[in-house]
Amino acid sequence: MNIEKYKKILQEIPENVTLIAVSKTKPASDIETLYQLGQRVFGENKAQELKEKYEILPKDIQWHFIGHLQTNKIKYIAPFVSMIHSIDSFKLLQEINRIAKNHNRVIPCLLQFHIAEEESKFGFDFHECEAMLQDPQFATLKNIQIAGVMGMATFTDNQEQVRQEFHHLKDIFQQLKSNYFSDNKEFKEISMGMTDDYPIAIAEGSTLIRIGSAIFGERQYNLPIND
Ligand SMILES: *Cc1c(COP(=O)(O)O)cnc(C)c1O
Question: What's the pTM value of the predicted model, to 2 decimals?
Fold first, then answer.
């Protein structure tokens, strides 16, 4: 772990930006260490891993789910998750709503957009998302709350390209805000920026940065990324 880097990031980010410490693949002891330093917001991308960590760690941690979510895994996180960043279909949102209702909860969710040039990244395109927001069924979902947007830039050294992709996400946010959420104060988050690109993301208007390896060190994967 790199505690100095963690402290440096906290110092350099503006007050309106929240740091999500992305602890995926890392042991609970690492999370505990950061918790002792005051960190309360953590991000995970696997539902079962998140549930296991939730069960053994302090209950005032705010857990953000940031990975691709399969409908049959919603049940693992629905009772406690603070925010789901990765809504990429109407079906997923409806299913989260249904399960959240069983738990008497309203779960904050972000609409994930495909802003990168890479094919592999999940997310809505703009028209698909508008179709959902205009669907009469959408207005009936009372156990989810759309809190903003999320996106991932292309993995590239081209900083200008990354900047443009983040700018594009900010544009999407503003269009949705004025067309669908103008009287909704909860629609306010732009989740963008990771270890390699968070300064650009903040400059382009990010409110939630998701940082893993800069804080916890490189990850070792033994599992496929999208289970
Ligand atoms: C892993 C992950 C991150 C953190 O990535 P780092 O480059 O390690 O900071 C952020 N967002 C998502 C969606 C991730 O899956």
Answer: 0.95
